[in-house]
## 1
Amino acid sequence: MIENVLPAIYLLASVGFIMAVKWMNNPATARRGVIIGEIGMLLAVIGTLLRVESNFAMIFIGIGIGAAIGAPLAYLMPMTAVPQLTALSHAFGALASALIGTAEFYLRAPHGFSMAALSLETLLGYLTTTASIIAFAKLQELMPTRPLTYPGQNFVSLGVLVAAIIVGVMMVAGTPAPWMFPAFTGLSLLFGILLVIPIGGADMPTVIALLNSYAGVAAAAMGFVLDNKLLIIAGALNGSAGLILSIIMCKAMNRSFTNVLFGAFGQLQTAVAGKTVQRPVRSATPDEAAAILDSARSVIVIPGYGMAVAQAQHKIRELYDALTKRGIDVKFAIHPVAGRMPGHMNVLLAEADIPYDKLLEMDEINGDFPNTDVALVIGANDVVNPLARTDKTSPIYGTPILDADRARTVMVIKRSMSPGFAGIDNELYYMNNTLMLFGDAKNFVSGIVKELAGSH
Amino acid sequence: MQSYEFGLYVFMLAAFLGFELVKRVSPLLHTPLMSLSNAISAIAVVGGILVTGDKDATELTRWLGFTAVVCASLNVVAGYLITDRMLKMFRKREPEKK
């Protein structure tokens, strides 16, 4: 009986997942998407439980423990920690796939196509687990966020990957010797670590998207091992979602996709030792900045990772309120790689209650800068560097940027003149229409807000 | 047609469908999209349940399966809840003061 109903249940669950992704295309339907996704998951789990023959207690305890940890994690994590939480959940998802692959290997000793799928599943599963843990450690700053490099790094990393693939092929081609699977596991885990260690904080959006994709492909490979179409569909959806996001991130950083796909081998890791020539900049105080904003008619705010670090989004919301109350048009320009994961800035600003129709992406807003009175850069750096447009020798040449320099006045809130992630000087800071506002983003914005309130 | 061959067709079609659907997602929602797709791929919980509940399960595979169930269901719960928590924050206009 259940063998006849189960395919229908799995089919419905697949429809649920597809609709969930479809409805994410618009904030108005997105929450509906979550609900239908949950229903799909519930159907899949209930259907599967009906098929199981033994060990119910253990399964329910497992689900219970997972839910008991997952729920508080989702509710208590502050929004600024979303990148870390995402990295962590990639680790859990990938580990689940890898462990199931391992169990299947010892349970059924598959061969041929199944064994190839199982090798792919465990390889991607284990490497994504350790890679995500390293990404988590970097985002949580348990580890230095700068790229860690050593001589011959690419050689070592590739060597480990090739060794893992050779062992994998040996297992598929013949009867696996007892040492092979543990060796394969170890090499996969090691490769995951080597993959992310050389990657710096600002490249995290691409890496997180890519690990998301790997976790999806691991789940799809599991679908082939278990001959389960639902897993194949869900895994393929996740795999392509992650892949698209990482392609978008790559384009936004002007990096080739293959470059990042294989772990940023050969990326520019040597920060150009910036010319330390002191050049004059103009700076301003909060009350001067407030006066300029007060007399503006249109303002575009450009947030960057510095805003997240300073937790300035709520103060920015107060500034937004104060300016809109005066009839000033305030918009936000979001660069695709601003922050530490795709869409990071949007989530933080939405958390601070800024309406999402004020958050505009690069292509939508770049044409508006020449008609804008003030571009206010808060904690962003490389994504507004005009050198990307003009200087062919610059490492960031060709990177799409926000045209902040084309606004009538540019104000940059920044702690000091230190260069950004790319390690190069920002031409924007030395322009005649640029004012540097030195200080902590949160305190400085709060100073401006106070000044605006006082002048009224 | 072999079962895995059939599976490859399913994979290919689902991957293309995924590409088409995700391309339409506004950059505004890229973070919630990622947490949602992560929750969906926690469908691995199905595999975990099957391995743990397999009547031929050995001590080793049962515990591997159990750990997988814990990890995957953690992801299911956390993934959906945090996606919803994020989406709740996206408002178009100022919320009406009640």
## 2
Amino acid sequence: MSTKEARFLQQVEAHRGILYKICRIYQDNPADQHDLLQEIMLQLWLSYDSFRGDSQFSSWMYRVAFNTAIVFFKKERRRQDVFTTAPYNQLPEELHTVRDQDEQLRIFYKAVQKLNKVEKALIFLFMEGQSGKEIALILGITPLNVRVRLGRTRDKLKYIIKTLGYEF
Amino acid sequence: MNFDNLKGAWANDKTDDIPLPVRKVPPGETPSIVSKLRRNMKQEFISQVIGFVFLILVVLRSPQNTLSVFIVSIAIFLLLVQTLNYFSRFYLFYKAIGRYDLSLRKNIYKITYELELNIEIYKTFNYFVVPLVALIVIGSMATSLFVIFIVLGVAQIISFFLLKLYVRTRYGRHLAELKKIMEDLETEEY
């Protein structure tokens, strides 16, 4: 293994959580998550020369990983699965309270599958604690646009979680 | 449940025990629109080379007369020039597609633009080449210009519909999805 490859693998290993979470957000079954992970790893490696170290490795990794996830179409369901906040998604009469963190996260990942690809990227970066400016740079849209879209996406996610039968 | 709870759960989410193979660089190509495009392009190139060999064999085995030698020579020359032109563009596209370190918006625009452009070039090339191949095959046996014109017309019509269907089947869904993502990314200032 070359020094470059060893350095690359070491940096990826240090940020493996990012990869794992992006794969879970963009694909809902383990086989597709695994395929996406392989694709992201490959693209990270092929693009590694473009990482000059003047930005954080994680920021560079976000870009490559999102760009890969967004053009990864394998086995993905068609767009009719994407949720719209139309009135036909009725709220259940009773909403359950969830306190367990693992269960909250499971519900979150289930709800996130109903978002479109851009909304998934927004909510991921929000969950990672990225600022509006950083999100704008990664997605290539304006900070104002990020604020407006993120607000809408959060509302949409809340609504989806409620339609799944959980309080939010 | 609220976003603060979720952020807490997110931050505490342990990934150390997940059996995902991030410990080694994967060796080959994996499925994605870009990889698929590259695979398709390789296949196109190989089938084009095989097609040329087949075409030359057909021409060499066909009966020759003055008209057919004249027509076939011109057609082969045009075919060669157009193919070289197309594949040089093809090669540049093959090398350029899929720069993943750009912002999401730039990347999607670039891939969509390149894909659409390449599809149009592919269609134009084939609208020209399919009748030309028909001309070479039939022209080497034909004795009348009328037959040649009929063959050309039929080949043009068939290639038009088949190419439309082929491109739609092969890239239609991906192109539609990329355009939808572009729409989703369109700037809206409030």
